[in-house]
Structure to design on (318 residues):
C-alpha cells in the first residue's frame, strides 16, 4: 500500500477526495495539480478514483519513486524533474553546524509562532510576499499551494514590533508526514531568520510525533540518491533537455540557491517525477507555460536587457 502522495496533495479529515486540475491545451492532458485526500485512502485507491473521474489522460507531477513505479506499471511514462529534500524526524537532527550557528543569530531578532488561518493572516502573508525578493516578479503556479488556507499550517518569524520577516506554510502529506509548501522571506530579513524558522518548525513536528518532514522539491537538481531511489525510466533526451533548460533559465529562477539553502539541513534527497500516459514535447511546453516559467523567464530577460542597454550605449560612445 502506498501511503505517500504527489507533492502539494494533502491528507485531511474529509469523507471524499477532491481534485484540482487544469487542462493542458497542446497535449490534451489533464494535470491534477493538487488534491485533498481522506487519511484512510491509499494512492492505489486514489488512482482508481482519478481514472473514473478523468479517464486515462491525466498528468501528475511531484511523484516519488514508489508512485512512479506504480504508474509506470499501468502504462504511464515517468520523467525525472528534480529532487525532494526529506528529513527523518525520528533521528537526531543532522543539520549542518552552520545552520545551527545562523539559527542562534536569528533568534536575536524575534521569535517563531504558528498563526491560525484568518483573513488577516492571509492579508499579512500577501504583504510579506510583496516584500520578498521575488515579490514583483511573475509568480509560479500549480507547483505548490501558493496561499495559506484552513487545510495548511502557517509558521511565521515575528519581531517584537510585530513585523513578519519570514513565513512557511505546511501541508500534511500523510498521517505522520509534513510537507513544505510556500517559503517567504522579507528581502531585508537579517541572516539566520529562515534557518531559525525551519529548525523550530521541525522541532514542533517532532514533538507532535511526526516521522517525516519534507523541505519540498528543488527542480532541475540531479543529486546522488540511494541505490534504489532513482529507477532507470525517464533517462532519455527529454530529461536531459529539461535539466539543461533549467540551467539556461538560472537568470530567472536560480534553483541552485534553493538547493544550497535546503541542503544545509542535510536531508536525504529523493528523485521526483512527472507521470503521464505519454510525456510528449507538447506536454512539456504546456507545463512550461502553465506553471508560469515562461512568463517569469520572459520578464527576467526583458529586465536584464533594459538594465544592460544603458551600459551598452555608454560603452559605444567611448
Amino acid at each position: 500500500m502506498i501511503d505517500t502522495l504527489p507533492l502539494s496533495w494533502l491528507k485531511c479529515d474529509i469523507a471524499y477526495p477532491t481534485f484540482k486540475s487544469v487542462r493542458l491545451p497542446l497535449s490534451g492532458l489533464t494535470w491534477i495539480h493538487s488534491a485533498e485526500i481522506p487519511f484512510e485512502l491509499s494512492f492505489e485507491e486514489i488512482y482508481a478514483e482519478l481514472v473514473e473521474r478523468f479517464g486515462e489522460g491525466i498528468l501528475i507531477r511531484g511523484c516519488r519513486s514508489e508512485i512512479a513505479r506504480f504508474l509506470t506499471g499501468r502504462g504511464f511514462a515517468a520523467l525525472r524533474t528534480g529532487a525532494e529534500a526529506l528529513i527523518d524526524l525520528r533521528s537526531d537532527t543532522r543539520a549542518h553546524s552552520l545552520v545551527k550557528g545562523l539559527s542562534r543569530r536569528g533568534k536575536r531578532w524575534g521569535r517563531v509562532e504558528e498563526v491560525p488561518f484568518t483573513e488577516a493572516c492571509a492579508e499579512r502573508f500577501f504583504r510579506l510576499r510583496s516584500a520578498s525578493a521575488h515579490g514583483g516578479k511573475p509568480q509560479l503556479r500549480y507547483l505548490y499551494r501558493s496561499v495559506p488556507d484552513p487545510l495548511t499550517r502557517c509558521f511565521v518569524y515575528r519581531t517584537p514590533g510585530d513585523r513578519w520577516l519570514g513565513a512557511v506554510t505546511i501541508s500534511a502529506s500523510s498521517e505522520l508526514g509534513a510537507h513544505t509548501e510556500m517559503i517567504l522571506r522579507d528581502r531585508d530579513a537579517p541572516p539566520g531568520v529562515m534557518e531559525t524558522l525551519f529548525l523550530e518548525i521541525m522541532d514542533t513536528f517532532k514533538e507532535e510525533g511526526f516521522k517525516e518532514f519534507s523541505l519540498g522539491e528543488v527542480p532541475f537538481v540531479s543529486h546522488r540518491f540511494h541505490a534504489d531511489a532513482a529507477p532507470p525510466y525517464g533517462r532519455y533526451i527529454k530529461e536531459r533537455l529539461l535539466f539543461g533548460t533549467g540551467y539556461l533559465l538560472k537568470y530567472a529562477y536560480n534553483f541552485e540557491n534553493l538547493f544550497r539553502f535546503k541542503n544545509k539541513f542535510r536531508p536525504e534527497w529523493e528523485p521526483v517525477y512527472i507521470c503521464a500516459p505519454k510525456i510528449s514535447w507538447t506536454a512539456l511546453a504546456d507545463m512550461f507555460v502553465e506553471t508560469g516559467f515562461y512568463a517569469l523567464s520572459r520578464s527576467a530577460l526583458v529586465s536584464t536587457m533594459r538594465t544592460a542597454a544603458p551600459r551598452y550605449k555608454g560603452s559605444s560612445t567611448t
Q: What stands out?
A: The chain has a mean pLDDT of 87.
